[in-house]
Amino acid sequence: MCGIVGYIGREEAAPILLYGLERLEYRGYDSAGIAVYDKGKLNVAKAVGKLKNLCELTDNGAKVSGCIGIGHTRWATHGQPSTDNSHPHLSGSGKIAIVHNGIVENYMKIREMLLSEGFTFKSETDTEVAVQLIEYYYKGNLLEAVSKAVDKIEGSYAFGVISSDHPDELIAVRKESPLIVAYGETGNFIASDITAVLKYTRNVAYLEDGDIAVVKKDGVKFYNSYLKEIQREKAYIDWDVEDAQREGYQHFMLKEIYEQPKVVKNTLSAHIKDGRIDLSDTLLTPEYCREIKRISIIGCGSAYHVGVVGKYLLEKYTRIPTEAVLASEFRYTDPIIDNHTLVIVISQSGETADTRAALREAKSLGARTLAIVNVVGSSIAKEADSVIYTLAGPEIAVATTKAYSAQLAVMYLITTALSSTRGLISAAEYDEVLAEMLRIPGKIETVLSDREQLQHLASMYFNNSSIFFIGRNLDYAISLEGSLKLKEISYIHSEAYAGGELKHGTISLIEPETLVVAVATCEKLFDKIISNVKEVKAREANVLCITQNKSFNAASAVTDNVFTIPNTHEMLTPSLAAIPLQLFAYYVALDRGCDIDKPRNLAKSVTVE
Ligand code: M6R
User: Fold this and answer.
1) Ligand 1 centroid – CA 476 distance (Å)
2) 50, 109, 273, 604: which one is catalytic?
């Protein structure tokens, strides 16, 4: 995720900004930049790649003189990593500079308006649109111009703004993206993350949604969106630096689990316009959607598990024969692929060697390829015919959580769009699914608010030597993911089975007290999975059941523990059922004292076959 730092005071700004950006490096980024005011003008320095490139370019800040400035580490969302696309962005006149975290959802509309007013653009970013919009409204009062601009902007943002016409102020504004003001001895700061300023001060104030702060070297004023002055209390931070990077969470995995409502919302809203799913900027044009004869979904680990969800959904809702294939197997199966096959490759990193090799193989066989990728500009994103980005931001914990959830969201969008284009879903059902999709982030929040129950369940079972997961259909796909999450971070032996398969062998492993997690969210198959639950209960297993609220009573009657998720559309249950399994795995690993963010023998990105 991008990082912001800003300073106004008596010291040289550039070294302070570079230090702050270095503290933000852990968030992941692909380019960095600073803008500093000096002698009537804003000087900008930007560099792609590691921060050391920017440090070299500016001689550790010595070449960019001035006591007010803003800095940014960029994680590309709109446009490739490049100096043009990296922040800070300048307005057309060069008098206003901006840094931005978040996404301006209506940037295309604003861009068109500004183009018609004669504005021109140098980058592909949504951020440049924001700074040009501020310039459009600027009539001598920077605060007013920022306020008018953010009033027109939809989406999430934290902005830092400076202007050569106002060298005594730094403006900060936020909506759904964190931003703080910090009070130092030589001046004041803004930052997206406390880490960036902890070296200088522990006195901060948190901006709330809609707040605008005018930061000067000797004081800060806060305004609401009507420009009425408001008060924001100062807080004292007593975290150490590493704590701060995790924003108070004990592990990145937990932080990333809690980011899921936001990333799912961002990923969905990027492709929903005026009440319709819009994938027109991908290869999934209506004409092509009607031509597809077969779909192969390829990935590794959790990405493959999203593929299994995709197989069930696409076959049910589009009637296109679909297979989910492990990338490492794909190349060696002599795949049946031709130019009527759509190959969907899924990868958080966009660098997984097996997935990349499978993509190349599919292309060489004539398939059209669509990548679902999190890292902009990654190898898979570049090599596929078309890309849909998951807007999950950088994922640091080895065990994927938020990227997995964002990939599921993309799978729902593709399924619903294809189903609609092929005339297989009524207008009413389309509207119903879409409306429920948009409710999923709120429902994930509801599940997260029950974390104590999962903590308790983990404390009951963390000593088990083996844990099984069972489910049918979509619940089987979720079982695969729940089992992987558990084994990779807790080192407990675990396997996932389709419920009906148990009695074909695995049931011999069930002993008294063995924990079986039964995922039972598919209403139509509820009775079937409960039959499997009875089979293991007859062998004295303990059963933890994950089901929808509406099935609580039926599940409680036959299992030892029940965790309920909110009721939802049958297509969307995976997004809610995955959350308790992530939290359960997390707390089991915590109770066992495991190195949760960096499990043994595993790497975040597997770039070798
Ligand atoms: O970067 P990718 O999505 O291609 O990575 C695929 C797998 O290596 C990954 O999902 C892995 O299974 C995770 N550690 C699971 O949590």
Assistant:
1) 18
2) 604
Please determine, for residue 354, whether its predicted confidence score (pLDDT) is greater than 80. yes
Report the chain's mean pLDDT, rounded to a whole number: 94
When pLDDT is cut at 50, 70 and 90, the band that residue 314 belongs to is very high
- What residue's CA is closest to ligand 1, atom 9? 301
* Rounded distance between C-alpha atoms, residue 409 and residue 439, angstroms: 12
> 344, 352, 489: which to mutate for ligand 1, most atoms within 8 A of CB?
352
CATH topology (fold) of 3-238: Glutamine Phosphoribosylpyrophosphate, subunit 1, domain 1 (3.60.20)
Catalytic residue among 2, 55, 67, 289: 2
- Model confidence over 101-131: pLDDT tens digits? 988 999 999 999 999 999 999 999 999 999 9
Sheet containing 386-389: which strands, arranged edge to edge?
322-326, 294-299, 341-347, 368-373, 386-389
Query: In this predicted model, what pLDDT tens digit does every residue of 170-216 receive, in sequence order?
Result: 999 999 888 999 999 999 999 998 889 999 999 999 898 999 999 99
pLDDT value of residue 1: 64
Looking at the domain covering 245-449, what would its CATH class be?
Answer: alpha beta
In angstroms, the CA 307 to CA 305 distance is: 5
305 alpha carbon to ligand 1 midpoint, in Å? 10
pLDDT value at residue 243: 67
Q: What is the CATH number of domain 450-594?
A: 3.40.50.10490
Task: Write down the pTM of the prediction.
Answer: 0.82
How far apart are the C-alpha atoms of 293 and 406, rounded to whole Å? 26
Residue type, 487: K
Tokens (6 digits) for 594: 């495991």
Mutation probe of ligand 1 site: the residue of 606, 607, 608, 609 with most atoms within 8 A of C-beta: 606
Instruction: Give the span between the Cα atoms of 31 and 2, in whole angstroms.
Output: 10
Using the structure block, give the residue that is written with the tokens 């380019």.
31
Please name which of 79, 480, 98 lies closest in space to residue 301, comparing C-alpha atoms: 480
Cα(540) to centroid(ligand 1), Å: 34
Is 2 a residue of the active site? yes
500 C-alpha to ligand 1 centroid (Å):
27
pLDDT at 609: 65
Query: pLDDT digit string (tens) for 7-27?
Result: 999 999 999 999 999 998 877
Answer whether 3-238 and 450-594 agree in fold. no
Residue 604 among the catalytic residues: yes
Question: How much is the pLDDT for 71?
Answer: 98
Residues with beta carbon inside 6 Å of ligand 1?
300-303, 347-349, 352, 355, 398-400, 484, 488, 605-606
Q: How close is the Cα of 350 to the center of ligand 1, in Å?
A: 10
User: Residue of the nearest CA to atom 16 in ligand 1?
Assistant: 399
For the CA of 349, the nearest atom of ligand 1: 1
Q: Are strands 155-163 and 96-104 parallel, antiparallel or unpaired?
A: antiparallel
Residue with tokens 């920022």, as numbered in its chain: 146
- Confidence check: pLDDT of 375 > 90: no
- 368-373 and 341-347 beta bridge pairing: parallel
pLDDT over 90, % of the chain? 85
pLDDT at 176: 82
Residue among 300, 349, 372, 389 to mutate when testing ligand 1 (max atoms within 8 A of CB) = 300
Which atom belonging to ligand 1 lies closest to the Cα atom of 407? 3
Say how many Å lie between the CA of residue 297 and the centre of ligand 1: 15
In Å, what is the CA distance from 362 to each residue of 252, 456, 586?
35, 46, 36
Q: Where are the domains of the chain?
A: 3-238, 245-449, 450-594
Query: Which 3 state secondary structure label does DSSP give 377?
Result: coil
